[in-house]
Amino acid sequence: MDIKEINEKIQRESAFVDLLSMELGKVIVGQKYMTERLLIGMLSNGHVLLEGVPGLAKTLAIKSLASAVHAKFNRIQFTPDLLPADLLGTMIYSQKREEFTVRKGPIFSNFILADEINRAPAKVQSALLEAMQEKQVTIGDTTFKLEEPFLVLATQNPIEQEGTYPLPEAQVDRFMLKIVIGYPSKEEEKMIIRQNIAAEFPKANAVISPEDIVNARQVVREVYMDEKIERYIVDIVFASRNPSEYKLSKLAQLISYGGSPRASINLALASKAYAFIKRRGYVIPEDVRAVCADVMRHRIGLTYEAEAENVTAENIISEILNAVEVP
Asked: 181 φ, ψ to 5°?
């Protein structure tokens, strides 16, 4: 297929994106950045970690997305006493039939909201992350495939660290995107108040089906990516590992480890999904730059020097983007 054909196909296939955005816009005031990133995660089959203070519509956004896609949705509130069986399910003995039967847990759904994921101990987090990676769950000696689309959207509260179990780096790496959400503007806050004190709160209606999402994922992979863009992505990730090679020697003391190959894969996929959302059949450098912070911010380790100097992963990413040559 040539670029023109791919472009026309993407134009046709991505028509539902506007519908979906409008439907979410009815419920979520502002937060365009968050809803766009949720769509990128959904279209590129990647899990999303949302970080923000309480009350910024994280749960509402995920719930509304599940309603608009007409998918099965389960919310799991993570607590320190949660067990892996509460998540995955367990074997229950039936006296009547004198045998064990499987009772499936809430993980058997299309959209999983893992609320305050850092409140649960490591064994629960690892049970969830295995399901995310393998897209299957084993209960007893039976393995069950999880339904497609399967998407985990986890939230964590960055302020209160008492009684939390921060996610280990290897587990955070399983999330395709980490989105940091800020407060709404004054105008948006007025709209939020109006919406919440009105007689009826708006609801998102189903505008597409889970099958449409599975098909759209195939189309996203057809988005054309030039070799120059691939090189650009590799350069960005390598600059986070060996900053000195990119005339960024000052960053060498601030980075303890850079992005893994998973960072490169996810940056390429997220760029394709971003191009798809913008209804384009090819990736341009601006697509890579737009999603770079969300893909990379949780994959760059900071040293004590960086923390002492108040340098964040975002600062390092913008330094890298300024230094790496744009094709």
From this structure: -105, 135
Look at residue 275 in the predicted model and tell me its pLDDT.
92
Backbone φ, ψ for residue 159 (5° rounding): -90, -45
Nearest C-alpha neighbor of 7 from the set 284, 215, 231, 234: 284
Please list, in sequence order, all residues whose beta carbon lies within 8 angstroms of the beta carbon of residue 9, skipping any fewer than 6 positions away: 1, 219, 222, 281
Would you mind telling me the total number of residues written for the chain in this entry?
Answer: 327
Domains of the chain: 3-212 (3.40.50.300), 223-323 (1.10.8.80)
SS3 177: strand
Give the pLDDT of residue 236: 93
| SS3 of residue 45 by DSSP | coil
Q: What is the DSSP string of 236-268?
A: HHHHHH-GGGGT-GGGTTTEEE---HHHHHHHH
pTM over 0.90: no
**What are φ and ψ of residue 207, in 5° steps?**
-115, -20
**What phi and psi, each to the nearest 5 degrees, are found at residue 99?**
-155, 165
Spatial CB neighbours of 58, under 8 Å, sequence gap ≥ 6? 34, 50, 52, 155, 181
Q: What is the pLDDT of residues 41-69, one digit of tens each?
A: 999 989 999 888 877 888 888 888 888 88
Q: Does residue 9 contact residue 281 with C-beta atoms inside 8 Å?
A: yes
DSSP letter, residue 79: -
58: exposed, middle or buried (Cβ count in 10 Å: 0-12, 13-18, 19+):
buried
Three-state SS sequence of 126-166: HHHHHHHHHCEEEECCEEEECCCCCEEEEEECCCCCCCCCC
Segment 1-21, tens digit of pLDDT: 688 888 888 888 888 888 888
CA–CA separation, 1 and 240 (whole Å):
35
Give CA separation, 89 vs 79, 121, 139, 153, in Å: 17, 17, 7, 19
